[in-house]
Amino acid sequence: MRMRAWTIVIATALAAGALVAHADAIVGSPAPAFTATDDRGAGHSLADFKGKFVVLEWHNNGCPYVKKHYESGNMQALQKAWAAKGVVWLTVISSAPGTQGYVTPEESQAYMTEKNGAQTAVLLDPKGDLGHLYEAKTSPHMFIIDSKGILIYNGAIDDKPTSDVADVKTATNYVSQALTEAMAGKAVSVPTSRPYGCSVKYASGS
Asked: What's phi and psi for 30, nearest 5 deg?
């Protein structure tokens, strides 16, 4: 009987732990802590940016949905505009070796130089650790963390889920909208949305 009771306690604890792990990246809760290395070999952790707003942008340079925002200059314009307001912008590449979007550190640097990327850093995540931590599903998939470390947005970059460059001009940009509202002390009117784009190219079985 005692063994049965302990079995129930352990099973309950494991189940609770699994739920916590699965529920880490939930809007309104503390953002999952992470440490990652950028394409220049420097380490970054979420704790480094305490007191600042942080944007996470999942990226795949072979994805037409990503190309829509980089070839139009939309993503770079967002990076520059929000950096000027003190926002930390981290581009994350979770493509595994041999998959679409995978780049070496040198290839990443050359690509972002060509595209005039203005992010704070490009985090390379070939094992998918950071991607799985946030349950990133698409490229792009956007997350916003506020100055208190709370996740305040999870979803698409805008409301035009197409790869058509022309749609950028008429789209409602959820990232800019959320940052503008939150930095003004207001509640984020659209805290979640369905992300669109190419699936994140995680390593098989990861």
From this structure: -55, 135
4 within domain boundaries: no
Q: Is the residue at 14 inside a domain?
A: no
Look up the domain containing 184 and give its range: 26-199
The contacts found for 162-168 with CB under 8 angstroms, 24 or more apart, are: 162/65, 162/68, 163/64, 163/65, 163/67, 163/68, 164/68, 165/68, 165/71, 165/72, 167/68, 168/68, 168/69, 168/72, 168/74
* 173, β-bridge pairs: 158
User: What is the number of structural domains in the chain?
Assistant: 1
- What CA–CA distances, in Å, run from 179 to 37, 41, 78, 94, 149? 25, 29, 11, 24, 14
CA distance 155 to 84: 23
Please give the chain's pLDDT, 206 residues, in tens: 343 433 333 333 333 333 333 347 899 999 999 999 999 999 999 999 999 999 999 999 999 999 999 999 999 999 999 999 999 999 999 999 999 999 999 999 999 999 999 999 999 999 999 999 999 999 999 999 999 999 999 999 999 999 999 999 999 999 999 999 999 999 999 999 999 999 999 998 66
> Are the C-beta atoms of residues 53 and 153 closer than 8 Å to each other?
no
